[in-house]
Design brief:
- The protein is an alpha+beta fold and 490 residues long.
- Helices cover 33% and strands 21% of the residues.
- The protein has 13 helices and 15 strands.
- The chain has helices at 20-27, 50-63, 103-118, 140-146, 162-176, 205-208, 215-226, 261-273, 278-293, 339-346, 352-373, 389-394, 465-485, and strands at 34-42, 69-72, 80-83, 86-88, 93-98, 131-138, 148-155, 192-194, 252-259, 302-309, 330-337, 405-413, 422-431, 440-447, 452-459.
- The strands form 4 sheets. The chain has a 6-stranded mixed beta sheet, with helices on both faces. The protein has a 5-stranded mixed beta sheet with strand order 5-6-7-1-13, sandwiched between helices.
- The longest helix is centred in the last third of the chain and has 22 residues, at 352-373.
- The protein is globular and about 70 Å long.
- It starts with 19 loop residues before the first helix and ends in a 5-residue tail after the last helix.
Amino acid sequence: MRPPMLVHGPYTAADPCSEHFSSTRHHIGIYRCVTVTCRYHADSPVQLDAAKLYPALATVIADQPMLRVGILDQDTNQAHFSHIHEVDLRSHVSFKPLDCESVSEYEALVAEQQGWHHDQLWPELESRPPWRLAVLQPNAAVHQEIQSVDLVFAFHHSLMDGTSGRRFHELLLAALNQSSQPTCSSPDTPHLLSFPNAPKLPEAQEDVIPFTNSIPYVVKTLWSELGPEMLKPRKVVPWHGKAIDFDIPHRTRVRPVDIPHEVVGSLLKACREHSTSLTALFHALTLVSYALHLPASEAESFAASTPINLRPYFGPNADPERKDLLRCLITSFSHEYPADAVAAVRRPGADLDSLVWKTAKQIKDELVEKLASLPKDDINGLMKYVGDWFDFWEKKKGKTRTESWEVSNIGILPKPPPGATWSITRLLFTNGSMVAGPALGVNMASAEKSTLTAGISWQDTVVPEALVDSLERDLSTYTRRLHEAGTFFP
């Protein structure tokens, strides 16, 4: 999904083909926001209050057009951005104390808050940019122990993607470690930011990513999506949790799995030795966990997806001055785990370590092949064939999900320069409830030379909680055991 471009005069979309993927999902309530939460650590006792946060945040907003637009006509197939002349930070920023007696209790409350943000619809979309920043503050005893606060950045997916969510925190961190006064506010009203001129937004995704699709790919994909079911061969349906049901209460659950830096080092070393990556490895570990905890009678096969950052595929029409702006540039690639591969995991006496690395290598090879082919034959290049997104979503009701899980990795947030007052020590990145998408998300992010966090997220009741319990435990146990013993399994 790419955002519609705002232009001077009537604020219309540059191309009505694909910008409505996320605006329509939000309007019908089936996908509401992305969140990236960062733990800001102060080397000295510094209070992160409005007086400190507002100027830094104003600097970021002034430089990033997507943080100062609203969305008009989201209930139609002609949604477009609106120019917001004035941003009141008091409508976007909150400071929330969390009553906790220990660091572990604080962690649980942060995860709970993250789930809450995923479940909120965006009010006044036409006149208020759809993003929030919540400062979560532990009580005095816990704060003294960790010298940190967590900032939850939640945003409408039409504005940007997870990579931009990470980048937002990188920019905010840099601004906090500087002392410049933004020009968009006055000392008397630091919470009010003025933007009299319409911003020059990032270009439409289709205008900067030169998608090309072969005739065989177009025909095959459209037939798969739109062809009569009676004329298609019977598909093997992978395990997918509950079927797509818009009436299930929209409650997002979040479980963070924190992997210490020294364990991450061992994982990276092992991945290099087996010619694979952390993303592919977490796919393989999730497969093993699912296969071992779901009976064969219910889960004969699985499927999963990996979001792919499209920024490396800018074409010659991309404006160099807008390439690094916060924006949404993402596609996705699917992997299949057929019955024989799953049965091999369940076989008594199976060499699970060997199967993990074999699977991880296979997934890595698939991703390398996909990356080499982009932007040819990609699903995003076919969005123009969807004439009515509301009808598109309506037809998914009651159908089985195509994927069992998703593994998304937004990468590493760099360390600030030496001597900086503030640093970031932890990132918790999650998708909200994917009502019409994968049953569960494993969302990876890390701070340089610090913790890697895999944020598990799912819609309550869609996935059995016992399965999430086992996945959370397995990802922690498998990775720690590799670090300590050199193998995932005893």
